[in-house]
Amino acid sequence: MSKFRFITVFIFTNLLLLFSVSFNANGQDLGIGIKGGPNFTSHLNNFRFVSGDIDLELSPKMKSGFNLGLIYRQRLSNNFRLQLEPSVFTMGARYEEGFTLRGFDFQTESETELLYIQLPLLIQLTTSPPERVVYGRQYTNTTYHLTGGVYGNYLLDAQFSGTNTGAPVGINFSGNFSNNVKEQYLDFDAGFMLGVGIENGSTSRMGLEARLMLSVIDSGNASNFSFKPQNMGATISLYFLL
User: Fold this and answer.
1) For residue 183, what are the contacts with CB-CB under 8 A and spacing of at least 6?
2) How far apart are CA 199 and CA 142, in angstroms?
3) 206, exposed or middle or buried, with CB in 10 Å at 0-12, 13-18, 19+?
4) Which residues of 185-200 are buried (b: 16+ CB within 10 A; e: fewer)?
5) What are the pLDDT digits (tens) for 142-191?
């Protein structure tokens, strides 16, 4: 199954679950919703690519990506709630630097793109303004919250692609490349998340949240050379709950 087909099936399955659960949800205690937004990720350590006589070690820079998923929220008390967020999540890093190959100097503009299914398990501490009812309708409130928890990732795909330029024999050269590097990474990754957000609404709620995340597992899996990238990143998500 291609990664795009997998994403489609994943989203469709969770949407069916979302709508089936929402018919039985208690609006005061259970929240069901969708989320999405940009990611900005990199690695703590250098990226290595080894193939034949090619051995590159590149310094990672921040790369943009996306997150898209669902939210299942259970209120534990007035100020605490539990949240699950099955999501499609892209990570990776960008590289812009020179390297030497077979005695010639080249420049690379490239990136790694890692496609994960992510499942965060989160606890949120939220403010709780007094409920107000105006003409029989609950008045909308704005709340603020802190989020903390853990996440697990399952790797679906990993690509290393970009453009190399140089002049190895005095003639300008430019070549595109794309390599599957999934075998260099572990199938599973895990770490911690910490975030802050704002939310507005009454029965239906809309919110915005920013998070930092750091893997506690060195996600590299190359047995014949040293490779311990360790994922890190920041996310911004807009969400809507029923």
Assistant:
1) 221, 222
2) 6
3) middle
4) bbeebbbebebebebe
5) 999 999 999 999 999 999 999 988 877 777 778 899 999 999 899 999 99
Q: Which residue in the block uniquely carries the two structure tokens 């998340």?
A: 193
- Sequence-ordered alpha helix ranges (H) in the chain: 3-22
> Tokens representing 63?
């790369």
**The predicted structure's pLDDT at residue 25:** 47
For 91-114, the pLDDT digits (tens) are 999 999 888 877 778 899 999 999
Cα–Cα–Cα angle for 58, 62, 65, rounded to 5 degrees? 120
pLDDT at residue 24 is higher than 70: no
Amino acid at 75: R
Residue with the bigger pLDDT between 24 and 145: it is 145
Q: Residue 222: what residue type?
A: A
Phi then psi for 182, rounded to 5 degrees? -60, -35
Q: Is 76 exposed, middle or buried (0-12, 13-18, 19+ CB in 10 A)?
A: exposed
Residue labelled with tokens 């930092």: 212
Compute how many other C-beta atoms are within 10 angstroms of the C-beta atom of residue 90: 21
* pTM recorded for the entire structure: 0.83
Q: Are 238 and 35 in contact (CB under 8 A)?
A: yes
Q: Which long-range contacts (CB under 8 A, 24 or more apart) does 224-227 make?
A: 224/50, 225/48, 225/50, 225/55, 226/48, 227/47, 227/48, 227/184
Place of tokens 């239906």: 204
